[in-house]
Amino acid sequence: MTSIDIQLAQAAATLQRFTGQDLTRTLAKLEASVKRRTVVDVPEFLVEHHISPDTLSAAAVLKQLAGQINVMIHAAGILTCLPHILEDGEVVEYVSLGAGNAGRAFDLATNLRIAEFKFIRWCGGAETIRQNALFKDLYLMAEEETGKRKVMYVLGTYHPLKFLTGGRAMSSVLSRNIKLEKDFRAKYGSQYAKMRDWYRDHGHKVELADMSAWVPELIALETMAVDE
């Protein structure tokens, strides 16, 4: 094992001692147990429940790693999907695996297609940030002047399509991205009041494709998170 492996293993073990089998239940017990404690017996309480500076250090280590998880999923997800996507004679021109597109227009470009990947599974309800991000990437692909196939890969198409064919105001979708709003208004002015209006005229330019079958591990993780 490398020093990083050892550090992560130690951090995980430290936090496991603190959280037990169920963090919510553990916290409820701690809330009840700490009542009526004083400066005299709080130190004993902390030792009893495995709470120390090491606990905070372990949490900090895993938090730092967690900040990179989405980037790891994005990178590994794209590469995992490639064998399912590429056709005979199709050649990868570039992939953008890091945070953002690092100066590249799209997540994937080949001699036959351009593509974006969204590895977050929508659950419905108020998901304005995901909706805004989806529209931005969809819009940029739709406006790209190319003869290549354009594909937006998502984990399930139901919720994305519900948004794209729904009645959310374009002013709301564009409101948090000044550059995008300026570009959109320069092209279309106030022609499109609702999301569905724009998608009706331009949605055909980009294929919305479900990649769930290629990355079932992500679906399983999302299901576990919901069940818990």
| Mean of all residue-level pLDDT scores | 88
Question: Reading side by side through the largest sheet, how are the strands ordered?
Answer: 1-2-3-4-5
SS content category: alpha/beta
Number of helices: 11
Largest sheet entry: 5 strands, mixed
* Termini separation: 31 Å
Helix content: 40-55%
pLDDT < 50 runs, ≥5 residues: 223-228
Q: Given the C-alpha coordinates, what overall shape results?
A: elongated
Number of domain units: 2
Report a brief summary of the structure:
With 228 residues, the protein is an alpha/beta fold.
Structure notes:
The protein is built from 11 helices and 5 strands. The protein has 228 residues and is of the alpha/beta class. It has 2 domains: 3-66, no CATH class; 69-227, no CATH class. Helix 1 crosses helix 4 (53-66).
Task: Sum up the structure in keywords.
alpha/beta; disordered C terminus; five-stranded mixed sheet; 228 residues
